[in-house]
Structures
1.
Amino acid sequence: MSDSTRVSYASLRDFICVAFEKTGLPQGDALTMASLMAEADLQGSDGHGVIRLIPYIRRFKAGAVNLTPNIKVVQERAAMALIDGDNGMGHLVMKRATELAIEKARTAGVAWVGSVHSNHAGPASLYARMPLAHDMLGLYFAVGNANHLPAWGGLSMLLSTNPIACAIPANQEVPVVLDMATTVASFGKVKAKAQRGEMMPEGWMVERDGRPLLDPKRADEGFLLPVGGYKGYGLSLIIGLLAGTLNGAAMGRDVVDFNHDDTTPTNTGQAIVAIDPAAFGDVADFKARVDTVVRDLRASERMPGVERIWVPGEQSHQKRIDYTTNGIPVPPALKANLDKLAADLGIPALA
Amino acid sequence: MSDSTRVSYASLRDFICVAFEKTGLPQGDALTMASLMAEADLQGSDGHGVIRLIPYIRRFKAGAVNLTPNIKVVQERAAMALIDGDNGMGHLVMKRATELAIEKARTAGVAWVGSVHSNHAGPASLYARMPLAHDMLGLYFAVGNANHLPAWGGLSMLLSTNPIACAIPANQEVPVVLDMATTVASFGKVKAKAQRGEMMPEGWMVERDGRPLLDPKRADEGFLLPVGGYKGYGLSLIIGLLAGTLNGAAMGRDVVDFNHDDTTPTNTGQAIVAIDPAAFGDVADFKARVDTVVRDLRASERMPGVERIWVPGEQSHQKRIDYTTNGIPVPPALKANLDKLAADLGIPALA
């Protein structure tokens, strides 16, 4: 990363925003998308930030995404809603869904909002984190946008890396934020290894005969392994059923591989749950209890060679502080691609 | 298992019920507990059924559990409730919690009910499955009753095998039911290996210096490994925060090891979420979509040597059919212990 350009959050957001406006996204939506994508990079989710700008624009231009969607609530109860994204970008759909879940949770205590006809929305933690600003907990499930995982023992790639994210507020400590794919490695990590010319460790992928696949350039010849073997297969399946099938969104054979298909709408499904701890008891007491758990874990006796215990969310938090102060790193290859995009669109380069 | 006694569900339930009544549990509660424990065995969750009868009774006699609890709702909103179990058995608390979640979900669409001052409740899937009878989905989280898992990189055992279970109704197919500990193996499986005099496979447990621990008789000298490394650690932590800390129940250092402590109330926390698919759209359509996903997975091309693809819940379903027809197997060592219990209590032996 030492030869990476560093750019400020504001520069990155504004660059993305102008690129989207130039591509036909309405101004307000362009800014929402740009803010969330730059936020992804700011928290270190660099597989889901500006790196997606070019593929997103490619699909916009091919007509696979609706740039002026009529995002609307199509089903609603006291503690749930189903939002039809009208094939708009997932960031717009799930920001709306999360805001609605927070609003409903304030009254109902807990609320679950799902999406149908949505699209890729960036990192799961973006949405799980949103309730934190309201002293609420967030839980997010999504169907991934490419199937790289078969059933346990199978070869047909019917499942995706279907992620789960959860954010839990603390008092003086950083919130606990888990954001995990249900595969050992995400496909983004595999692509990053390929770009760096590195081999993958054993356990990430296997060949169709079950032997380890180590060369990330041959990723299309094998498949990802689920976390914990059949358990990760089960987790991916239930997340897909909760975030996709329940909402009438794509799951299994209907999932569109948005890396290899620029024209078919993905009908992506996601779900956000907001939980108001005020419904359960005193919020300050709850957050103090979270602090205690976090501190006990961090103060834990350590295995030989382990310098510190990390609680989920802390590493991302440290990146956020680093990148806010020193800028967000943009690797040279990505910078060159973004410069080319800027030239093509006739907009100022990212600086 | 070939030398196991086979007993009918009704015989097992009635035996457990009489044992509990004899120990001081009110008749109705004894029957509820017995039905749920025999149900656990019937579905093959043999680490959480009648095998727990003797340890439960040991804690009853030592005064660690309230045999006549006043189980009551202490917090309530349209889509949530918090139930204080008054230190009653978890089966009684969580059956009540699940019934309330189902009732609330019918109106609110989704409902989340947590417990505090509860106790061990048996297998997670028992409660996740209950909404199925109402064409609803169930999602269950619990704090385990003994800490066998440290933070990732740590040595202090501050976390449990905190399970997650999810049950999703299908149409002609068997419901999808996942029930998983967040560790590679549950501690029950380790104990079973020890009883059979077998070694554990590498990956279940490690010594305090990180080397594999293979001898289950030395289990107290090491700890369980989380599924997927740091991901399973994260999952166990968030499940513990959602099912324990949020409810004011024990988590982290406060978890009581009920295998080694017969007198301290556990203050166990659990959570059940009921989701009504009727709130999201047509239920028959939803269940047909689940059928499609299940059938596609089962029809998947298979890896060499794999005879069939299993969908979570199918193996348990097959056991239920086998055990309903042929009886529930009770291994000789367990049968001997139950015979001794019967003699001690002055009740007829299990037959």
2.
Amino acid sequence: MFYICSSKTNTTRMPSISNKAVAMPASPIRKLVPFADAAKKKGTKIYHLNIGQPDIETPASFLNAVRNSDMKIVEYSHSAGNESYRKKLCGYYKEYNITVDPSDIIITCGGSEAIEIAMLTCFNPGDEIIIPEPFYANYNGFSRAADVVVKPIRSFIDSGFALPPIAEFEKAITPKTKGIMICNPGNPTGYLYTKAELEALKEVVKKHDLFLLSDEVYREFCYDGKEYVSVMHLSGIENNVILLDSISKRYSACGARIGAMISRNKEIMNAALKFAQARLSPPSYGQIGAEAALETPRSYFDGVKKEYVSRRDFVIESLNKMPGVFCPKPSGAFYCIAKLPIDNADKFCQWLLEEFSHDQKTVMLAPATGFYSTPGAGINEVRIAYVLNLEDLKNAMVCLEKALQVYPGKTN
Amino acid sequence: MFYICSSKTNTTRMPSISNKAVAMPASPIRKLVPFADAAKKKGTKIYHLNIGQPDIETPASFLNAVRNSDMKIVEYSHSAGNESYRKKLCGYYKEYNITVDPSDIIITCGGSEAIEIAMLTCFNPGDEIIIPEPFYANYNGFSRAADVVVKPIRSFIDSGFALPPIAEFEKAITPKTKGIMICNPGNPTGYLYTKAELEALKEVVKKHDLFLLSDEVYREFCYDGKEYVSVMHLSGIENNVILLDSISKRYSACGARIGAMISRNKEIMNAALKFAQARLSPPSYGQIGAEAALETPRSYFDGVKKEYVSRRDFVIESLNKMPGVFCPKPSGAFYCIAKLPIDNADKFCQWLLEEFSHDQKTVMLAPATGFYSTPGAGINEVRIAYVLNLEDLKNAMVCLEKALQVYPGKTN
């Protein structure tokens, strides 16, 4: 593996690192960074459609609360997060018709830690978790870290990445299956699950008594008047459900590292709190900002949503106009997956950075292969994050169109 | 186990939580909190000597940097932490004669995450790690989370918790032993390892080709002119050594959640970076403060050290004057372990909160049993964190002395 230096070149011996450290996947989104750096050095401007780092400003309420903080000592907070914040968060969830109390919530270091703690709490090494693919690539990493085995079930671009048929879940279930994980609205697909899909999922969860983990960090980003249905709305599986959340996208505050793990199952939360206590507390400044940001006026989100809808509409229309390109229109989040007339998305994305430029500009995309577990899946698909302003998106789409005309590995 | 609610009382079935979630120890330091809350409700003032939350102010450089931050978007940072911070950190370590470059450093969410990532990187489930006990209780939690088996080796109060004889390490080593972990200066003992002790440890590490993890977050707190020797100073085992660090105590900034995992072994750091990438980035505000705090003048630390030395001297002298009490004088950190003339430290600490008060005041201590892995060890020992001002410490020592006179379970 290219990222491992041989220990033979070192002057001393060393013990071998863990099997999971070897097997741990490198970030598929970040592995093209060296090629991007080289392109920048050559003077090429790069439009970054490869990462979910929004260009939207963090709400002033968040930033001002941190700036005006008068702490003299930056102390540990409660291991579950500040109680004042958790109390107010209950009001936030209530607006989405999700009824929880502060003891159902543990504030975490980003949504990432919520996933980590949930996995440690629920799964033994070797347990299996079913995840519809393509899925957020880091689920692979968290599963590796917890020695949990991911069993992907394929969803397809032609149906816009709708939930795979329940029969596919039934086929994948073994005696080792202990949970199902979804992301809704979806990263990387932008797909928003319908009530009917979630009710169908509920029946499988109930029948086989599984944990249902749901990453719903994009709930603010649902479009076209479509309904956001949370797993917390499903009745009869309250003890099976864990909600994984984050303020990173909601308030464009990815660096604050504030997320939450939420469940009405007291046994889960009592156990999760022990993991939370071991790592002491979530970040203090992020909590101050996040608590203040709960006062963010609805108009902020209306503005953000309007902006993303116009970006989405422009990108989807542009993509589908290009010969041989197909991109379903997503109803949520700020990603889409497009099928391109290319031989290999990893090669294409690297070529865009290494060999292509149009007017000294190029575009950086995420090869979709990194979001699939099934080898070979997504070979001609890319994920596009529409996190740039319309002007930049226009230039990026021109680059992509020109690139597809001259790419040596094009297939039509 | 008292902390698990029975799932039978719930309306729906639920899958069972993981074995490690059940086995995960509750925080021994935080488990007395409900008794403290009840005492406070009765109007009793509690002197908190139970936790390592310093009362020292965070340096102004840190607080001002956060307050003056002009971020408009709180973005993800580099997964390994801001490069500007890592570069300057190299200068900080250089002052301690530790030569590292920025690629040897991953900034983590507190020292806790540094331990977590180091364990995931080095150890397979079932691997054994030797740790001299008493040790920082959360090492147990991190080991459970990573399915690593802790093999404690006993150190003793009579020798001030010096490193156990190397023969004891040799006896404890099995084919599954993959590492040794130490804390220097020590929490909970305050013991500062000598150069000779670390050189002896080096030979064992070399002979059996083990990882050596060293938690050195208290390096600023070494007293009486004694020398701080880091595992990073040991030559010939550069590829075996991992330094675990944190700014929590250094800058009295526990809530910032900024730590670091450091190794000169590129294979370790490449693998660790994959775990770091999966969780995206460390907290942005904490990094801003921590980078600015590197400018903290030496006089700040001189003042802090002087303060801790006078607190330590007062506490140790007071303790050793009490009949039947013995407390070795530590050379580092801000903890000591005292042997008391009592039947059971857990009972005693709870009794202090539930049944005792002197002039409406009492003291909260950490039973040392939580810092030992060996059952029954530390039964008559408590950890005292001298993190309060001298006036409060005086009152606390009066409380303790009076309490020992009337405690029903006293043994002399």
3.
Amino acid sequence: MLFGKVAGTVVSTRKAESLEGLKLLLVRNVDVTGEVGKGYVVAADSVGAGLGEVVLYATGSSARQTDITNGKPVDAVVMGIVDTWDVDDKTVYTKYASAKTADV
Amino acid sequence: MLFGKVAGTVVSTRKAESLEGLKLLLVRNVDVTGEVGKGYVVAADSVGAGLGEVVLYATGSSARQTDITNGKPVDAVVMGIVDTWDVDDKTVYTKYASAKTADV
Amino acid sequence: MLFGKVAGTVVSTRKAESLEGLKLLLVRNVDVTGEVGKGYVVAADSVGAGLGEVVLYATGSSARQTDITNGKPVDAVVMGIVDTWDVDDKTVYTKYASAKTADV
Amino acid sequence: MLFGKVAGTVVSTRKAESLEGLKLLLVRNVDVTGEVGKGYVVAADSVGAGLGEVVLYATGSSARQTDITNGKPVDAVVMGIVDTWDVDDKTVYTKYASAKTADV
Amino acid sequence: MLFGKVAGTVVSTRKAESLEGLKLLLVRNVDVTGEVGKGYVVAADSVGAGLGEVVLYATGSSARQTDITNGKPVDAVVMGIVDTWDVDDKTVYTKYASAKTADV
């Protein structure tokens, strides 16, 4: 899995029938330091992720191992919202960073 | 999934029998800002995409999860035509951009 | 799928038993303009492609969706010989280009 | 498989239900000489790897071939802790390098 | 498949149980001209490849299509030892190159 940041949504009216009802997120790559990169992926949303949230996404056949993506032509799925990660015992990212007073 | 722009079609007369009748599209990579890049993929068309349209395509085993690609040696499929996407609440791409008067 | 040019053949005497009888082609990458690049792949041949021919190849589990590769440790297969492709309504490649008088 | 170094852990509270109980490791890429690179992957832990350990991880559908990842939306798994590797008969990495007196 | 050169072996004592008995090879990438590159992969050995031999390896789910890797968390397998390959009718690599008198 890789980290990504939800940048927006993708609207597709004409599509494979099995994709009806799936929410498609535009997810930008995030590196190990938390920086957003140039790469992106369009992923099905299985966890109700919102704009700006940092998420985990899985690709390939693993992206079809959720109830909503099973058997569908989908090669990427957001399967977790990241609370925090650390590198060498230092917290690199926490979702509460930008709202310290209210949430922490 | 990734964004792509339909650049043309590919004709192959001598091919695996199971591919008979499949339409093969030449799809150029499109980045998150809507720019066409150097990369490309040849993908089976499952939605009737036309020249110049911006599409979504899936790769790997996920490309075989449509009625027309099931069980075939196909590793990329166009499974949606993109209407619009946004980045940080700004519309980056809309298929109606080049025909504002007539279509919007 | 991607375009490739058949550059040669690969001989392997000691190999997984299931690979007996498979023809292994050395295929060089071809970009969207028809130029041969540095990359390559070794692919099983399912269509009788010859030296110098421009082909389509599929990778991953999709490479096992032909009669000759089914259930074998093969991650790339040549599944079509390219006649022609076009970009924005201009023909970029045609297999008859080098033999215009005789074949067209 | 590739070598990686366990850099930390990833916490995700809101996630696909099937992921409950899985430990998610942040694994940084390690090259053939043992150097840590910029790349990373988030992988499920199937062997009880600890911070700083050099591990082997598998990706794609192969990452689901363990008891704890079977059928789950997981595309990377740590499936081995590396004791040692050599290149051209010279030991490049050994896990006992930093504790020679105590452990060897 | 890609060409690789067996650079050494990898020892992992603590690993997924299903991997017991598998020999893990460190394989360096080899380009189309026969040059060894910076990249590498750790692959299960299904053919008894020795140090310094040039091999073919397959990745992804295709790496599990051998008797010894079936159902295991392994994403790369050495499935052939290369005797020779040619590019445009010129032999680029032959395993007998370094022992011309004795073997050819």
4.
Amino acid sequence: MGASTRRKGRSGGGRRARIEARSSNQSTARPGIDRNIPYYDLLPDETLALIEHNADLLLEEIGVDFNGNPEALELLSAAGAKVDGERVRFPAGLCRELVQATAPAEFVQHARNPERSVTIGGDRTVFVPAYGPPFVRALDGERRYATLEDFQNFVKLAYLLPSLHHSGGTVCEPVDIPVEERHLDMLYAHIKYSDKPLMGSVTAPSRAADSVAMMEQVFGAEFLQSNTVLTSLINFNSPLVFDQVMMGAARVYAENNQATIISPFVLAGAMSPVTVMGTLTQILAEALAGMTYVQLVRPGAPVIFGMFASAVSMQSGAPTFGTPEPNLMLLAGGQLARRLGVPFRSGGGLCSSKIADAQAAYEAANTLQVSAMAGVNFMLHAAGWLEGGLCMGYDKFIMDADQLGMLSVLLSGVDTSDNAQALDAFREVGPGAHFLGSAHTLANFESAFYRSDLADNNSFEQWQAEGEKDCAERAIERCKSLLDSYEPPPLDPAIDEAMIDFMARRKAEIDANGA
Amino acid sequence: MGASTRRKGRSGGGRRARIEARSSNQSTARPGIDRNIPYYDLLPDETLALIEHNADLLLEEIGVDFNGNPEALELLSAAGAKVDGERVRFPAGLCRELVQATAPAEFVQHARNPERSVTIGGDRTVFVPAYGPPFVRALDGERRYATLEDFQNFVKLAYLLPSLHHSGGTVCEPVDIPVEERHLDMLYAHIKYSDKPLMGSVTAPSRAADSVAMMEQVFGAEFLQSNTVLTSLINFNSPLVFDQVMMGAARVYAENNQATIISPFVLAGAMSPVTVMGTLTQILAEALAGMTYVQLVRPGAPVIFGMFASAVSMQSGAPTFGTPEPNLMLLAGGQLARRLGVPFRSGGGLCSSKIADAQAAYEAANTLQVSAMAGVNFMLHAAGWLEGGLCMGYDKFIMDADQLGMLSVLLSGVDTSDNAQALDAFREVGPGAHFLGSAHTLANFESAFYRSDLADNNSFEQWQAEGEKDCAERAIERCKSLLDSYEPPPLDPAIDEAMIDFMARRKAEIDANGA
């Protein structure tokens, strides 16, 4: 298999042409990581076609509930779906056709610092912090509710760590701020304390509208209408329900040309069948239905095929992470997204451990490695996640970020240049000698191997002399030192003022009206 | 790509025919894990061909030192190599030709319990404990020199844990036994306390001979001459030196039809060039030279392409584990072995951490996941390894074994049966409901998802109520309970007596003569 087809996956030339035709916002494309290793193709084409066939059968025979949104039902009906109450059934192939007709294969999400803009889709990988935890495992080891200060800290850390390409969204829930208003503080923190791209609020359509309006203060309304500056997380309510709030938020973003991730959130065995094939079928059906809706709202609006799958423990009903079945799903999910020709979101440093111990690390690493092989484009939850997503760990964040640095080297593949072949080194050194002082090593050592600033590779004796610190302790030390070193990126004072004014106005309105 | 070619890798039909022609000892083939997912093919064929070309160039132009073994030099010279002092140069292609002519593509290693026999090579994966640590991290947390009791404990644990298919070799160094005699106690412990296959001693040719003789007590001399009952680890002395002791041990095993793993042990940057391509080139050259020697000693003797590669830290010179460059080497190494058509040994739960913390787990998981993707057949160091191999951890052993259980599910691939497609489950449940009580879930839940007996998936509150135990603490508890439950497998008293007699006789000889 040649290098160029290898990097593009297995599909035929038709998909390639389609991707090029559907690429949008390409003027300032910037990669997170430019993938230079093959995708891992777990399933043969015939099995993928079977999943696609079964997903079509679900969409046609069983259908999807689009709840509380008569406008959506009209839109879907006009596009050829059969609407019966709130149940929507799609003729086989309709969703795929509508998505492939207009959804971009990749898109640029602009950051306020153009050097931080990322291209999402294609051969690129973007690492994004964990999303949603109401708790933190704090710097002093205490587990407590998250605050706005924690939120700001994680934004600062993601800004400082080069292996994170994105500032994320709800990096933790600032529960010290009223729920009706906290989306404004979160957006402001992302923009103020970082210059990396970010995610908008989805917890109410009005908060999505606020997110767009806030970004207008930064980028201007005109720029925003023709460029994507927000990528936001729209969960599908599995099985087979698209609820009013999520649909409403998705609509706001799509109407404004902003990106959405249509993400079935599946605890397999509870919210989907207890098999890999069944769960994949359902996820594909749900993602297709959601992406179809987005493309009907605004054809060409950027949309990402999202997938979050955990297996529930059949003993306790608890979600599990880093286990083999969801990893098989993840690998196949990447293939399904590539066949569809849209960007893929999945994976991350998932775990169910309550602390940053060996369980957390095994589970996170298992999913991270597989995510990289699977070709995840937008890796949400890449750093910080503990307790099945209920808790954000300062130590875990630093540890995961180190792992992401390693993945970026893995994804960059193998240098095959003459220098890398090192024939002169062999001629210089020969049998029984060593390469440490060779000319080739001296010329290459600085960029040779990934350098972890967290792993302790020293002797037992040296580690002992330095206090027998475990990885979590070293991570906390590194975290404190990073936060101490933090300096904010420059921000135009006029933009800062405009955002502060906007927030104050909106908070006053929310206090008065409740929304 | 169809399922059958997928499972066989990418090479053409010629290799397949060759493999079938060279399969030996097939009468009682039993798998460890039967691989049912594709190999991850990192490098395109032209890059693999380039590495093979460069390895040939090394073998032809620079050559390999075969130290202190005039007999070997004669054998190699007679086969067409150019011998200059102890430096041996091979005409391009000669090693590959000699290895492919007679080395089996896969072989059965017999265990004393035929149900434990394993097939090594092809689509099979065998998990083997860590090898060589002089220290243990004990059940009470202390780090100290290993003893024979520790050795016996790890043999018992590997016997009890179904995810380990092999009893291994020097699972730790019993330093309380004189170095000249301990190989006998180790062999006896493997046979007495387990019925899984095992590895022989390589630290002197006489100890290899003792290993063979001891196995004759178990299997009979005749059976042993036509069947493989030992797989032993022959390290190549990188760069490009095959030393007298290792060659002598390899000769003993090959002459007796026993398997050897020819394993370059490379700390890249010190013992090989500081690049992925350069290190792969050297490893291939060394493995080819060593396997050629084995095939010349006894054509058809089972031999495994071994590969152990770590990147040294360019700051401290210390070996590092779980990092991306050795993982890229590992993936390519699997491809090189498949092109050669011999079994592949690499990978494992490698780490440099001193304790079973998050560092240990990230590093181990990174290598374990990649090993599975790479198609490692004989995964030495799969469980227990700490401190870059200097220490065997009781907790780490239990943790790694749990990960191996997960890998065996991953390697088994995706069930695509009608039952797994679960269309009836969707028809039963429908949008907005849940699958927990559905007929399909009830019929499938018992075998549905991998069940870890180590991961804590419970709520924070429950975990807290149960004492906030970290993964290492739970692993120690599980380890103690396993050892408490241990009962030895049945052993014919006549065999036991014969082994004890043999040991006593040899120990008396060693005491008298020093060997």
